[in-house]
Amino acid sequence: MMKILNRLKGHPSLTQGTAYAILFSVGFCHLLNDMIQSVIPALYPLLKERFGFTFAQIGIITLVFQLTSSIFQPFIGLYADRHPRPYSLATGMCFTLAGLLALAFAPNLGLILMAVALIGCGSSVFHPEASRVAQMASGGRKSLAQSIFQVGGNGGSAIGPLLAALIVIPYGQHAVGWFAVAALVASAVLTRVGYWYSLMLTKIKRSGRFRQASQSLPKTTVRMALGILVLMIFSKYFFNACMTSYFTFYLIERFGISVQQSQFCLFAYLAAFAIGTLLGGFLGDRYGRKYVILFSILGAAPFTLAMPYLSLWGTIAMAVLTGLIIASAFSAIVVYATDLMPDKVGMIAGVFFGLMFGLGGIGSAFFGWLADRTSIEFVFKVSTWLPLLGVIAAFLPDVRPNRG
Questions:
Q1: What is this structure's pTM?
Q2: CA distance 270 to 313
């Protein structure tokens, strides 16, 4: 990466293409950030057993974490659009570091909530600004850039439960402190990215290029499209909240597998989720983001609806196929939304990442409340109907990528 930075200082024109080193750097940090976040739901069986938490209390932990990960994101994104702060990425990772250390030694529910709130605040700072960096480094290939950035996050979400099964479950809550090393590495890499970002901002100011041309669609059409995208996020992340928070409990209760085995099954779903994200970016550029959004959510419905009625291996197979298909939506949704409002990349990224976390938290709390009053199997069956909402994506206007 230093080679690219030196070339930028001496030859700014060489940065007109796609800056892959920067894209892979922010993608790698997204991997570390989301790996840390995914350790939290992976801890739920351990915390439930140690502290005797109810499912509703587990849902509250997720709600606090997801709300702090979401409420601030649109405001930080809007501020970043107007006043970019290149080194805020590294600063946000310091919040995550503090939250990890607090979570490793938290002795009660109150301190656990404080710890996950700190981790959530770090995520709120990271996502909008990192999305701006990814688009700045895209060289015009926005879907590719968003996919590289997002697949890092989904890869981290998949690795987190696997590492939790290998490190945290055998050695207990204090082992969470080892993940602080990942936060330190991410902070160092983001400091380098911040330096590149500051050089690019200087170049943009000198050239006078502050905004891109706006999408030539009527405001009512833009609002309608954004409303449909919000419903897509609701459908996708309410379902995903049930999978990430309660899939392990469902497998343990229905099939009698161990906690560690259930974590490996969750890893299989999340790994497929990561692969699907990258495929969605390529397909969105080729066939149009509207059709990727429609297929990725509605197309997952047959597999989700079959899951509650299959054997263990059949359930895992359907979960993998579901993760592969449904994951392709998010990159397409974010890039589609920034195509609608290209001069507000940070705010749009903040809104949709915020919705992703916020709706996921609300969904987790709701399903936890419902599970306490019914059963995990009932909750799982209800959640499998959510992808059918994907049918409304057919009403999105067809905004083709790279349209002149």
A1: 0.68
A2: 16
